[in-house]
Amino acid sequence: MEVDAVLVRQVQAGDSAAFGHLYDRYASIIRAVCFDTSHNLNEAQDLAQEVFLRAFRDLNKLQNGDRFGSWLHSIAKNVCREW
């Protein structure tokens, strides 16, 4: 299993498939964070989708790929707060 920093660098270099690995690694926890806010499975899935869209769009701003998980979690908290 590749570490987050390697996958982040691959995505930043244009390998969108590497983002799929990051998604697979974090999707369940991000959905759980979103469900904790929304208390609705459909809303949680929509919120989680927004989290990953923002993460993909802004991934070039992440300087330390080892912090991907905590960065993604903070995006989730912001998306849920905005919801």
Short description:
The chain has 83 residues and is an all-alpha fold. It has helices spanning 4-12, 16-38, 41-58, 68-82. The chain has one domain (4-82): Orthogonal Bundle (Rna Polymerase Sigma Factor, Chain: A).
Question: Which key terms come to mind for this protein?
Answer:
Rna Polymerase Sigma Factor, Chain: A, 4 helices, mainly alpha
Could you please describe the fold and organization of this structure?
The structure is a single chain. By secondary structure, the protein is mainly alpha-helical. The protein has a single domain (4-82), classed as Rna Polymerase Sigma Factor, Chain: A (Orthogonal Bundle), CATH 1.10.1740.10. 78% of the residues lie in helices and 0% in strands. It is built from four helices and no strands. α1 crosses α2, α2 (16-38) runs antiparallel to α3 and α2 packs across α4. The chain is elongated, with a radius of gyration of 12 Å. The model has no long low-confidence stretch (mean pLDDT 97).
Uncertain spans? none
Order of helices and strands: HHHH
Query: Structural class, from secondary structure content?
Result: mainly alpha
Rg, nearest Å: 12 Å
CATH fold assignment: Rna Polymerase Sigma Factor, Chain: A
Count of discrete alpha- or pi-helical segments spanning 4 or more residues = 4
Average per-residue pLDDT, rounded, comes to 97
* Gross CATH architecture: Orthogonal Bundle
The rough form would be described as: elongated
Number of strands: 0
Count of folded domains: 1
| Helix coverage percent | over 70%
Distance between the termini: 34 Å
Q: What percent of residues are in strands?
A: under 5%
CATH homology superfamily? RNA polymerase sigma factor, region 2, helix turn helix motif
The description of the largest β-sheet is: none
CATH class categorisation: Mainly Alpha
